[in-house]
User: Which sequence fits this backbone?
């Protein structure tokens, strides 16, 4: 009976999970409220939380195991996953499962773990050589026996998920009819059943944005809105002629096994953000800074205004961004992180670099030779030159020149992977090498690999280094 209810609960958790590796634990894994005066959770919610709270970060991925383990008496005994498996920090950080838990007992070794608490052996049989004749490896109860006192708690949780499902489905029907206000109400009711659920929270934010489609400091271009988050797919920075494209939220595998400093390949979550449709041009830079630092300008380059600004350092970019944020309502402009940059460059593609197709999308050594070439040699930097932005095909998300033309500064420090935006690598105040991405007009095709990381001193200026603006998503 308990196993049947448990199976149903797992199915519901899977059906309404907020994303890969986070199966329905948005509420259960949350920390308790810091303010004790806040309203106490309902009886149902209190009953639903103990095993997930005790399991901590392990509950993000191992939902089935945590549910099975939760019906035993070990939660009340104040044990947890780490007591058997160790902190396993490397395993938690590496979502590709390349790093195993610190301790992974199997077969007879499981009994040795149990003996750590039951030093006299099984309380019933006194056996010390095995536990699995009577116990499931995680549930720690006999699966053939009814679990006293737990059916009611699980039934209450199932009922909550059922009410949640009805509100979520009703909200989705209203979305199909573009009834944003009614949909908002349904998603709010869903969150009353499962507070903090990622799916319902995302849908609620989408409805609020559709009801108030305003991006501070930007003009909405076209009528296309992202169906998932409710933001316009393209905007123009007011008064500055800078087009930006919405990059949708998602997960992707950052890095590459064939590049030493891009290892290990690991999964990264990226929130939605806006990214420049084109690299910043010389004309756009000059309009903001009143100067044009680029090498490629003058009589030899009649289209210089539409060519990417270059010969700018990371520090120069920060000064320009500060000025732009002072002039545009809402501000928030910045350089992309290197994780955001690679995610946008790949545009949901896992395909390897195709040198034959590269010429359709990028300016690089193979097609950016200056004409006439004259006495150009491979040692002469004037042999090649950048081209006006947007003259090649865009990638699948509508972004031009993500590879080639000029290398693009990112906000990130050059630090080893695993990538973690919270480990200080996105600090703007500390000294250290910063990352450039994408390759440039004089690079070989191999140097345009989306995963290639190039470190550079933040004060250095070169004729092949430029930038592309980013801006975080604002609003609900």
Assistant:
């Amino acid at each position: 009976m308990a196993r049947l209810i448990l199976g149903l609960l797992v199915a519901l958790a899977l059906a309404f999970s907020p994303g890969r590796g986070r199966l329905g634990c948005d509420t259960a894994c949350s920390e308790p409220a810091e303010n004790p005066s806040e309203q106490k959770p309902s009886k149902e919610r209190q009953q639903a939380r103990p095993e997930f709270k005790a399991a901590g970060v392990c509950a993000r991925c191992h939902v089935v195991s945590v549910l099975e383990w939760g019906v035993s008496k070990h939660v009340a005994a104040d044990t947890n996953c780490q007591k058997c498996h160790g902190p396993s920090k490397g395993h938690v950080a590496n979502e590709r499962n390349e790093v195993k838990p610190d301790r992974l007992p199997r077969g007879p070794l499981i009994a040795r773990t149990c003996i750590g608490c039951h030093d006299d052996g099984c309380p019933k049989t006194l056996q010390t050589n095995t536990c699995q004749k009577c116990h499931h490896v995680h549930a720690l109860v006999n699966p053939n026996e009814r679990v006293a006192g737990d059916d009611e708690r699980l039934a209450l949780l199932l009922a909550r998920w059922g009410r949640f499902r009805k509100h979520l489905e009703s909200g989705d029907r209203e979305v199909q009819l573009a009834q944003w206000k009614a949909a908002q109400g349904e998603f709010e009711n869903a969150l009353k059943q499962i507070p903090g659920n990622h799916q319902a929270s995302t849908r609620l934010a989408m409805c609020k944005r559709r009801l108030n489609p305003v991006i501070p400091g930007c003009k909405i271009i076209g009528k296309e809105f992202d169906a998932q988050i409710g933001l316009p797919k393209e905007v123009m920075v007011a008064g500055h002629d800078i087009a930006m494209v919405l990059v949708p939220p998602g997960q992707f595998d950052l890095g590459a096994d064939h590049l030493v400093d891009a290892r290990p390949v690991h999964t990264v979550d990226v929130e939605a953000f806006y990214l420049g449709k084109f690299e910043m041009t010389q004309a756009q830079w000059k309009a903001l800074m009143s100067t044009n630092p680029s090498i490629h300008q003058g009589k030899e380059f009649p289209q210089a205004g539409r060519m990417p600004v270059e010969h700018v350092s990371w520090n120069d970019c920060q000064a320009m961004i500060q000025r732009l944020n002072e002039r545009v309502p809402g501000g928030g402009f910045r350089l992309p992180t290197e994780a955001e940059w690679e995610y946008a460059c790949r545009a949901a593609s896992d395909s390897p670099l195709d040198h034959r197709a590269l010429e359709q999308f990028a300016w690089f050594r193979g097609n950016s030779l200056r004409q006439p070439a004259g006495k150009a040699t491979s040692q002469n930097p004037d042999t090649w030159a950048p081209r006006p932005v947007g003259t090649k095909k865009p990638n699948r998300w509508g972004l031009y020149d993500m590879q080639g033309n000029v290398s693009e500064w990112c906000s990130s420090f050059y630090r080893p992977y695993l990538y973690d935006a919270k480990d200080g690598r996105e600090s703007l105040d500390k000294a250290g090498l910063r990352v450039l991405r994408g390759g440039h007009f004089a690079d070989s095709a191999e140097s345009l690999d989306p995963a290639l990381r190039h470190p550079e001193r933040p004060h250095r200026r070169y004729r092949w280094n430029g930038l592309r603006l980013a801006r975080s998503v604002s609003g609900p």
In short: Residues 218-472 form a domain with the paralog of FGE (formylglycine-generating enzyme) fold (CATH 3.90.1580.10). The two ends are 43 Å apart (CA to CA).
